[in-house]
Amino acid sequence: MPLDLKVSVDGSALFQAFAQLTKDELPGAIAHGLNRVAGVAKRAVQSRMEEVFNNPKPWTKNAFFVRTATPQNQTAWVATRDFAPGGTAAYDYLRPEIFGGPRPMKKSEKALRPIVGDQYWVPGRGAPLDAYGNIQRGEIVRILSRLGLMQDPLQNMTDRTAKRLARKGQNARAQRSEYFIAREKGNGRAKGIYKLIGPGNVVPILIFVRQPTYRAVLPVEQIVQDAVDQNTEAMIGKAVRYAIRKRLE
Length: 249
Description:
The chain has 249 residues and is of the alpha+beta class. The chain folds into 2 domains: 4-100 and 214-248, no CATH class; 104-209, no CATH class. It is built from 9 helices and 9 strands. Strand 2 (64-67) and strand 3 (76-80) form a beta hairpin. Helix 2 (26-52) runs antiparallel to helix 9 (220-248). It starts with a strand and ends with a helix.
């Protein structure tokens, strides 16, 4: 479910400002003011993200948007995006940061279940990271493909593909076996996925951990409410002045 936070204002406190407008101007000015306030609230959430997250991705910073008010529907909302083609919806991965608690499984963790069970992973010291400190998506895809765990079977490396690569002089056997699951002695529990990078030289790519639990560092509802309380008067004032300027043009 997405997160929708309604942005409303105390009409009685703003009666004097709205009294400057005609009956026809009033609905548009109220909607304009609400949208200004919602915009400030959204930017306040983004600003807090910059404080609590280490170099957040643009996708994360843009997880919230404004459902704008209109003269006919005088309600503005700050909401999370609940659609993510090919990825995870913003609310799903931000929920532990907003409310605290355990995080849900990533798609890659679910894909690894058949061979490692219900385990979660964090990047190992050998994991290639992107500019935002996250493991590169291509590396995850390669791991799942080599282990035969891609959702689309055609994306897994098959024996036929291995033979074709071998005919071209490529070391398909090494490509297939470069990633392997390291297990604990005794109980056989998977402890990570390692990569062979040279003779006798391996590095950890994924390290398996217990389900991570987070404390709430992005209390969105409070951030939005504080922004509304602090900025409503100024934003409504700007909306009223804009309406008056339009009248005089």
